[in-house]
Amino acid sequence: MVEPRAPAPVAVDAPDLDALYSPPSEMIQKAVLDRLIGSHESYLRAATFFCLATGSGQGLDASPRGGPPGFVHVLDAHTVAFADWPGNNRIESLRNLERDDRVGMLFLFPGLEVFLRINGHGRVSTAPELLAELAEQGRTPKTATVVAITEVLMHCGKAVNRAKLWAPASQVDRASLPTVGQMLAELTRLGGATTQIGDEQVGQINAHYDHEVRHALY
After folding, report:
1. pTM, 2 dp
2. What does the pLDDT read at residue 4?
3. What is the pLDDT of residue 52?
4. In a 10 Å sphere around its CB, with 0-12 CB exposed, 13-18 middle and 19+ buried, how is residue 129 labelled?
C-alpha cells in the first residue's frame, strides 16, 4: 500500500499590502455607511439571494439564503431581518450567533454587475410579530435573524465578469459533475459500510433530492 504524501510546506511571508495596493478612492471611502439609504433599500427590495457569513471559536461558516424579492426586510435604517427556512438542519449560522454575533451579508443580483454588502451584529429572534411579518407561502418561520448594521456598501461587479457568471454559456452541464446520489455512494464507500449504495438507489436518491430542493422549500 502506498502511503499518501504529506503536503508540501507553504511559504508564509508578511507582504506589505500598502505597498502592493493603492488606497481606495475618496468616493469609495465615503460610500461606506453605517446605515441604509434609499438606494440600498431599493436593492434590498429586489434582492433574492445572499450569502451569510458567521463565525465562532470553532471556525467560520458561509451559508446561502434565498427567497422572493424583498425577503430581507428593512426594519429601519439601521436594522434588517430575514427568516430561517428548512435546510440541512445543521443550523451552524444560528449556533454561531449564540457565541459570536458578528455577521457579513453578500447579496448577488442575477444579471447585474454589482454586489451589496452588509456587515453588523446579528441575533436570533422568535418574536411572534416579527415571524408573522416574515411569513412566506402561508408558512411562518421558526426563527428570524435580526442584524444591526455597522457597515453597508455597494461593491463593484468585476468578479461577476471574471467568472462570466450570468453568461448562458457559463451554465454548468449537470451530467459533467457527480450527482447527490453519486456523492453519497462515494461517502458510503469511504466509510467502509458493509452495504453499499447501488445504481438503483443512486437514482432514487437523485429523484428525491430533485423533488425536495424544488418543492419542500418551507
Report:
1. 0.90
2. 59
3. 98
4. exposed
